[in-house]
Amino acid sequence: MYICPVCKKKLNRVGNSWKCSNGHSFDIARKGHVNLLTTAKHNPKTAGDNADMVKARTEFLDKGYYLPLAEKLREVAGNVLQGEKSPVIIDSGCGEGFYTAELSKLENARIYGIDISKHAIAHCMTRVHLAGITNCQFAAASSFDLPFAGDSADAIISVFAPVCNDEYARVLKKGGTLIVVSPSPRHLFELKAAVYDMPYENKPNDYHLDKFNKGTDTVFEYKALLSSQKDIFDLFMMTPYFYKTSEEGMARLRSLDTIEVTCGFVIQVFLSR
């Protein structure tokens, strides 16, 4: 599946490295992942979420608040991949692997997770090793420069991550499936109401996917009770609001010990032309 991020030739595993015919070589880390970010486009040491952000997201997700979404995503993916004997799935922008691990439960699936953060990818390996998952591979890479051969994937999953029309169309087989998860209008509205004087609903995302045919839209919502100040703050760190909230708003946030929020998601299915 992997191609060289420098010359786009096929990568082959040789010992503890991935190598192409042009001599470019990428060492496999001790945990088993590989860094396929190129310094020409990204600084592999600083790209994406840092270790503290990954830790906060991991601790929040592992408490199960978003487990219903992970299970629903697996259900949707399973339905669209019915009939595929050994589907290849790319989790693009996989973060620390919470949804990837759930997707790995699909029968005979081969899963490839990529994220721009080396810290997130390292944690993905920890997650699958602890769970005994053997059908997942992970690489540090960009959604806008996927390290995969053309026409090689049956499905690409993007959960709260950047979406790339051209790269996804290149890598997916004809008729392959792209599943995009984004916030519904009321997602975390109660949390925003506690922090902002004038909370607003989320606007729908337009990904300009002109190389895909539109499939189904599913709105999936439920309530979750956040039972500690730490859980509330960890969730807030996962949102874009964290970076644009005033000190006054952050003080309001830190005063909360519990809050019930709407967890709302739009699951969109697109088909590659």
Automatic annotation (TrEMBL):
**Gene3D superfamilies noted in UniProt:** Vaccinia Virus protein VP39 (3.40.50.150)
Please provide, alphabetically and separated by semicolons, the GO molecular function terms listed in this UniProt record: metal ion binding; methyltransferase activity
The entry marks the following residues as binding S-adenosyl-L-methionine, namely 66, 96-97, 187
Q: Which residues bind Zn(2+)?
A: 4, 7, 20, 24
For whether the record's keyword set contains Nucleus, the answer is: no
The organism's superkingdom is given as Bacteria
Domain Methyltransferase positions: 88-203
* Domain 23S rRNA (guanine(745)-N(1))-methyltransferase N-terminal stretches: 2-38
Q: Which UniProt keywords apply?
A: Metal-binding, Methyltransferase, S-adenosyl-L-methionine, Transferase, Zinc
Record-linked InterPro entries: Methyltranfer_dom, Methyltransf_Superfamily, RlmA_N, rRNA_m1G-MeTrfase_A_prd, SAM-dependent_MTases_sf
Keyword check for Metal-binding, yes or no.
yes
A Gene Ontology BP annotation from the UniProt entry: methylation
Record's protein name: rRNA (Guanine-N(1)-)-methyltransferase
